[in-house]
Amino acid sequence: MATVTLRFYGRFVFAEPYDKGSPTGKLNVLALNMQYGGGSFGPHHVLMCVPRRAVHTRLTTVPPTRKALAFGTELQNCEHFVWDLKGCALQVGTDSRFMFKDRGQLPDLGALAAGTVKRIVDPGSLVPGGDSSQVSAVIQIRVGKGNAVAMFKTEYRFVPEGTKEGKDKFLVQADLVEVTIELPPQETALSMTLTTPRTTPARDMVLQRTIAIQVPDRAPELTVVGFTNVCGALPHYVRFDEEFVQNYEVLVGPPHVSLRLIPETSPTGGEAGDCDIPTYLAYDIADNSVIVGKR
């Protein structure tokens, strides 16, 4: 059976909507705008990268933003098409059959922000807004199985942003999320709907186009669609991940600095990555209230 893998790395919040305690079969992947609210963090770019052979060019109606070469022995295998998703919404699948298979090492943003206040997901963070929103892009997944992966095996613990003092044990946290999608036997491609703002003549109008992913017969291992939301800095050790506070911006009334928790990186545990701690967030669609500890 043909399989397509979506791979996410960088500043993403994996927001899973529930309806009366039951999952809806959807997942909203929020690409954080790291400069929202006047923050001093460097710009992050949300990009989608697909191997050339995996792009169904007859069904795809939107050209890539750019093209790039990766390591490989054949040009057809190492050329990649790259789409800049800033300000866009991307829908993957038309059903409601997504489920998390394993997210055990993925930090729960609802638990980190719990405190004594009922937390609400800001409705504005569930739609892309580019520079003016908490998120620069939204990828809604309606099919497949998700798994959280610790690629770098880096160990963290969460400490108050104000004091930066903690006594908890350092633990390995997930830095990558993969969604595996098995195509039905009768389907030859996975169609994704890209919604982009229409700049003229009316700014409130949108364009919907298609990006189609196929599974090459000769190189099925190439069918990996990569999503990144990272900055341009080289990987290096940072003891306290100050950028992590932008995760809380997707909530109405983010926690005060004295209550916000940020990751402290162990100086000896694992390998230093970059912008590599995603979070999970469950919420109820009735009132957008955060659900803590949902499994």
How would you describe the overall organization of this protein?
The chain has one domain. With 295 residues, the protein is mainly β. The strands form three sheets. Strands 2, 3, 4, 8, 10, 15, 16, 19 and 20 form a nine-stranded mixed sheet that branches. The protein has an eight-stranded mixed sheet with strand order 6-7-5-17-1-14-11-9. The protein has a three-stranded antiparallel sheet with strand order 13-12-18, with no helix packed on it. The longest helix is centred in the first third of the chain and has 4 residues. The two termini are 29 Å apart.
Descriptors for this entry?
295 residues, mainly beta, nine-stranded mixed beta sheet, eight-stranded mixed beta sheet, 2 helices, 20 strands, 3% helix
What proportion of the residues is helical, as a percent range?
Answer: under 10%
User: Proportion of β residues?
Assistant: 35-45%
Distance from N terminus to C terminus (CA atoms, Å) equals: 29 Å
Secondary-structure element string:
EEEEEEHEEEHEEEEEEEEEEE
Average of the residue pLDDT scores: 89
**Major β-sheet profile:** 9 strands, mixed
Count the beta strands. Answer: 20
Approximate shape: globular
* Low-pLDDT segments, ≥5 res: none
How many separate domains make up the residues? 1
